[in-house]
Each structure stands twice: as C-alpha cells, then as structure tokens.
Amino acid sequence: MSLNDTATVVRRADYTLSSFLVDSVELEFDLAPEQTTVRNAMRVRRNPDAVSETSLQLVGEKLKFVSAQIDGVPVDVLIGDSTLTIEDVPDSFELTLTGLCSPSANTTMLGLYVSRGNFFTQCEAEGFRRITWFLDRPDIMSTYTVTLRADKVDYPVLLSNGNLVDHGDLPGGRHYARWQDPFRKPSYLFALVAGKLVALEERIKVRSGGEKLLQVWVEPRDLDKTRHAMDSLIQSIHWDEARFGLELDLDRFMIVAVDDFNMGAMENKGLNIFNTKFVLASPETASDADYANVQAVVGHEYFHNWTGNRVTCRDWFQLSLKEGLTVFRDQEFTAAMMGGDERPAVRALKRIEDVRIMRQVQFGEDSGPMAHSVRPDSYSEISNFYTATVYRKGAEVVRMYQTLLGRDGFRRGMDLYFQRHDGQAVTCDDFRVAMADANGRDFSQFERWYSQAGTPRVAVTTQYDATAKRYSVTLTQSYDDNNATVVGQTHTGPWHIPFAIGLLDPYGADLPLGLDGESAARETTRILELTQTQQTFTFVDVETRPLPSLLRNFSAPVIVEYDYSDDELAFLLEHDSDPFNRWDAGQRLFTRELLALASRAAAGQRLETNEALMGPIRRVVTDTSLAAGLRELMLVLPTETWLAEQMAESDPAAVHAARQFLRKWLATSLKDEWLTTYEDNLTPGAYEPTPAACGRRALKNLALAYLAELDDPSDAVRLADMQYRTANNMTDRSASLGALLNASAGTGIDFGKHALDDFYERFKDDPLVVDKWFALQAMQRGTLQRPTVEIVRTLLSHPAFSLRNPNRARALVFSFCGANPAQFHAADGSGYSLWAEQVVALDALNPQVAARLARMLERWRAYVPALREPMRGALAAVAGQVRSRDVIEVVRKALG
Ligand code: TRP
Ligand code: ZN
Fold first, then answer.
1. 99-113 confidence digits (pLDDT tens)
2. Which residues pair with 618 in a beta bridge?
3. Above 80 in pLDDT, residue 483?
4. CA angle 190, 193, 198 (to 5 degrees)
5. CA 300 to centroid of ligand 2, rounded, Å
6. Strands 456-465 and 559-561, sheet pairing
7. pTM, two decimal places
8. Alpha helices in 276-318 (DSSP H)
9. Radius of gyration (C-alpha) of the chain in whole angstroms
10. Residues 6 or more apart from 97 whose CB is under 8 A from it?
11. Does 263 contact ligand 1 (Cβ within 6 A)?
12. Annotated catalytic sites, by residue?
C-alpha cells in the first residue's frame, strides 16, 4: 500500500445539491444466498434547485449489471468501478435497473448478507449501493415499495419497512410479500429481513388513540429472551410521547435480532435491526449491564424514528445531528426509567457512567491522531466517523442546550425543530438555530462546539475577600495545542461553556448564591456562562471562605484544573450535595495517588502506602446511608487506560503495578469491611434488574474482587465458589468466575479451572454467553509463567472462535487489545504482533470491524519510548498489508 494514493478525501465544504431527485423507488428481490436479483424501478427527475447535468451518475458496489430501461425502453449505460452513468437523460423519467449481488459471499455485513441462513441488510452509511445503483446519499428522500420473493420453506418470514400490503404463494414452493413505507426516507434507512424467525407480539394504544402492533423477531431458540426488549420498546414509546410529545407514526414497529452485526443496532424505518447482544436477555444469560444496554439501545433506535428518520441528515458530516441528539435522548430515557427524574442520587448513577465513557474514550480520541470535531470537516471512510466524538461529545453538546435553556426551553427548541424540518434532510446548524430562535437566544458562539476539535481546559482560581464578604472565581479556558491534529484545525475563539458551580460552607452545606449586581441570592447551583477566554464571577454576601464544587454534574465536556488539597477533596467526597461531584472528588483523590505510585514504579522505587487516604475511603465503604450503586462507583479505582493517559508518557506496566498495589492495600486494610459489605449486599430471591438490586450486586461483587486480591485469597475463593454454584443470574455468575481467575493470577494456584470449564459446558449453545467466556479470559491478569497473550493465542484456535462473527472477534481480540493494557503492552511486543495479524486478517473479511481494531494503536506516540518503536513497527507492518479504505485511513493518520 502506498499511503497517499488510495485515499480519496471527502470534504464538508464540497457539498452540493444533487442534480437529480428520486421521488419513489420500487424494489423487487428474488432472494437466493448465492445470487440475488434486484430490480429497482425509480422515478427520477431533475432537481429544480441544483445545477443541471445532462447525464445521471449513480453509485453501486459489488454488483453485476443485468439491464437498464428508461420509461420501458432499453438504454445504454456506462459501468465504472463503482458507478453507473447514463448520458442525456430526460427531465423526468422512470429508470429501471436490474442487477445481481451475492449475499452469501458478503462477509462485510454491509448491504445484503446472510447470517445463520437468514437474510439481513445494513445500509447505513453507504451500504445501499451494495444492493442496487442509486443516489446513495442521505438528502435523497424517496418513498419505497418493496417486493420480496423467496423459497417459502427456507424463508417463511419476509419483512421490510412500513406496512405489509400484499403477500401470497408463488409457483415452485416460493412466496412473496409486498411492503410499503408511507414515509419518504433516505436510502440508508432501507431494510429487509428474510428467514426462519418468530416474533413476540404486543398491541398497544398510543396517546392519540391509535393501535400499534409491536414485534420482536428472533430465531425460535431465543423467543424466551425477548420480554425485556419488548418492555423496553413500550417504555420508549410512552416516554417519547410524555417528554417530547412525539408519537409512533407507523401502524407496525418491528425489531429483528441478528447474530452477525458490525455495531449495536440500526434504526431502519419501522424495521430496526439489532445485534442480538442488545435484544436478548434472561436472568441466567444476561448481566445487569446487558439488561441496561438492551433498554438503552432499544430506546436509542426507537428515538431515531423522529431524530434521524423523520428529520434526517443533509450529508454525513452532519451525523451528530441525529446521533448526538439521539444518544442524549437515550441517556435521559435511561435516567428516567431508573427513577432519576424523582431522585437526583439515582440520576447521578447514570451520569457518572456516561461521563466515565466521555473522559476515557472521547477525551482520548480528542487528543489522538483521529481527533475531529463533532461535525467533522473531512473523511476518507465515513464508517470511521461513528465515533465517541460524534456520539458522546455530540450528546454532551445537546445536553448543554438543555443546561442553558432548562428542560422547558429545550422542549421549545425541539418543538420548533420538528415544526420547521419534519420530512427534511438538514444540518447541525438548523438544530442550533431552532434552539436559539425558540428561546430568543444567540447561539452563534455555541457553534464552536461543532467546529472545533479538542477538549477545552478550564483553569480555575479563586479569591476570598473576608472584609467585603466577596468570593470571586476566575475561569480561564484554553485547549491543548500540543495535539498536531488539533493544531491543524482552525480555532476561531473561545467556547461558550455552561459551568455549573456550588459553594460549600465549612460544615459542608450549600451556600445560596448571589452574583455581584443581583438583588438576592438564588439557587445553590449556578450555571456560569463562560464565553470569553477569561472571566471573573464574583459572589456576594459570602460569610466565610467557601470550598468550590466545580463543573457540577459535568455541565460541559471540559477538563477542570483547580488546585484542591487532598483534605478538600476528601471534604467534597463526604459532603458535596452534588452526588456526581462527590464521586468525582474521590476519583481525583485516587488518580492523584495512583499517578504518584506509578511514577515511583516507573523509577523502580518502592511503593508506599498513604495512610491519609484510608480515612475517607473507609467512610465510603461503611456509609450505608449511601446507595450501594453509588458506593460501588466511588470505590472502583480509575481504569489503567485512563490513568496511563494522564501520564506525560503512558507506561502501562507502571500503572498496572500502581493500581495492583493500591488494590491489594485496600483489600488488606479493609478486609473486614469487604467481608461485611459482601454479606450485607446479597440479593436473595428472584432476579430483578432494578437500580437498587443492580447496585447491591455491583457493590457485593466489588467487595469480592477486592478480597480476591489478598495474599491469602481463601475467603474470596470460598465465597466465589459458592456464589458461582448458587448464582441465579449472570452478573453473579460471571463476577464469581472473574474473582476466581483473579485469585489464580495473584497466587499461581488455578482456582478458576473447574468454574471456567463448567461455564463453557453450561452455556456452549448460547453464543452471547460464549462471548463472555472468551472475554473474561482475554481480560484476565496474566502471570509471568502464563502471559495472557498465550491464552488468547490458544483461544484463537478454539473450535468456537471465529473472526467472521464480529461479537466473537470483539470478545476475544478486542477485549485483549483494548481492555487488558498491562498484558497487551507487554514489553516483548507479543501483544502488538497478535494485533497486527488480526487487523490484517479482519481487513480481508470485514473492513469496518478491522478499522476499529486498528485504532487501538493510534495513540502510540503517547507511550514510553520503549513501547513506541514496537508500536510504530506494528502499524507500519499493517500499513503494508491492508487494502480497505477503512483501515488505510486509520493507519495513515496514526503514522501521519
Ligand atoms: N445508526 C446506528 C445507531 O443507531 C449506527 C449503525 C448501526 C451503523 N450499524 C451501522 C453505522 C453500520 C455504520 C455502519 O447508532
Ligand atoms: Zn444512533
């Protein structure tokens, strides 16, 4: 590969209106795995608003051309590598194209493909062009009529978007179904499914009175695992009506589960297609996290029906218009379903989880070679831009509107957005302007959240004037200009940052806050609007020197710099009324301690305990007035990945040593507390995925994990053995297995073998659980005698392993490369060799998934010198062997 010649870059600035429009599409499929015939009859006309072209050029990939007609008359076409061109077309005509594709040979899971004998499609972003030639861009919106024909025995169920308008038998044991979608949509929302599937059905009434049919389609063996997805769908429908006044617009709404899927799920109009991982759930097979994920993803895809489908994106640079907004909506939905609208402490559980991902994944992305803004300026392969920045930071940007406008103001903005843009393909600017106009606000500076990459830093200094009783807070914003990618971008000026702040008095109570010039003190949390590079806000009538609680609830996606003492952090951890900031104070304490330990470890110095830390931690462990779930979040140490990123030069080995040292010390010093915590948080009785029960399980299993760190882990082994044998749910079963594996790594005694074997035997027919079996092993601590890379290599040739199934590849390979940093970054480079082999192998099968794996070395420059060279070498080796645009873009930018 030569790094420059293959990459065609698409730029946002180059957007032009399409010269042609497609008003309607009639598709006919003769489905057969080896060769499927697709007949595509389109009503095409010149776009009156665009530059007129004489010839029509469509895109198509991996298709065999059969025939073309205009208004029924055969016409000559020019077939290019991925184009089909017809010269001198009339102003308005019917174009009929017939072509062939081969679903069973398709390993990319884009376009039409076969999974376990059934047909599925995935068209976002540019998969429709693998089904037929088309103007495959999201601003071409058309109505679709779809006829499916297939063998009746092999494919008894035939589904597509919209309403079933006709079906019947055909000669030769075949049958057909015709579907009509009444709503105009872009091609990326087209879908079909055909095969041996069964459905859980439910009929519900929507607010305006209409009756709707809901279906969750799965393979027959999985029907008993669909209840939770159905319940989540019903909750989603009701929540969107109540919170946003948005109603389901189709008579029928279908979810279909598929084993082979590149991402989480897809919002095809009326026919959502899901990775089985985000549909199937039963207490024995799905963990608490799985239950939560099913609910969140079902919500996410359902919410797209309005934010994405009814109002869609003008071009793919606007992806965050639908993804950021829809992630925000699913986060709010989850929080509400947890009971967070009534209980701030419960709401914080969800917020903490989301912020953890932001900081760990998005901040990392933002300081690496793939850094891009929420609305990127260019890409080579759009699939690479379904990122934490577009999704997660995009959701934070949407959340900031709500923080600035309040829930009611945000709702007014949403209402105006739909009033103006229903049925259109629009831009992030259109959304921002709707928010501004509905509330009489000027959000022109806010635009920089969309256009500027990089994570803003806000440095805070404070000053207390005891005589005047004034407390001033100076906020200074900047961004990390060391990042080469970000430097290349235009930073036009400061961001508009909503900065939530509270002030604690010496007893830990919130002060009512009044700013200079205001007549009376107001709330105890104020949103300061930082719009300049530096601004000072002065609070009046402040009787004693307060302690600031900064960026409450993570009110903006920024890094706060403030010189807290350890004692002040401990005070916030104990007293802050903002539960999010209590957690954050604890994390700062831990991070500080762990980074100090890591630098000692890196320098080969002895690691020593810091007794001052123990008081605050013991208080959290024993504070039974705190919800178990919150205590658990407060007691989990920051991950090795996050810690390594905080170092000037990432040193995974030093971070691992530091974190293990602290874990063992916490385990030893608090042994009795952990034992009590374990006993006090059992969840006897039937399994329930409620926040309270999930919190208890999480805390109990954290206690177990700490006990497994002891030099003598016999208590942990005894408890874990019993828990493994008696568990009535997957959370407890897998946590006990994890604890056994961990105790084994610590002692060199194999405590885990029998449970590991039992786990496989018990669940070998359930792919999603077998994935857990692979992942647990890939993420385990290695020992000198047996590094994890060797275990992973052995598992690569396990009969149940296959790189072709994305979930399986993620379970083993991604878990090792992405979630086991100490082992992956082994000094001998063994992890990098494995990574390189797997990227190359995946590149030939599934570029989209390969590129995700490729990204795991993109931050190589941030590591210690001893790792940098082997990492660069592995990247260079991969660069020489890969072919896909997806992987080439990633490695080119990484080596850049
Ligand atoms: N739009 C999907 C979502 O809800 C993302 C998605 C699913 C996707 N499958 C994909 C994107 C395949 C690109 C390719 O987030
Ligand atoms: Zn989405």
1. 999 999 999 999 999
2. none
3. no
4. 140
5. 6
6. parallel
7. 0.98
8. 288-303
9. 28
10. 39, 40, 42, 58, 65, 67, 68, 84, 132, 133
11. yes
12. 301
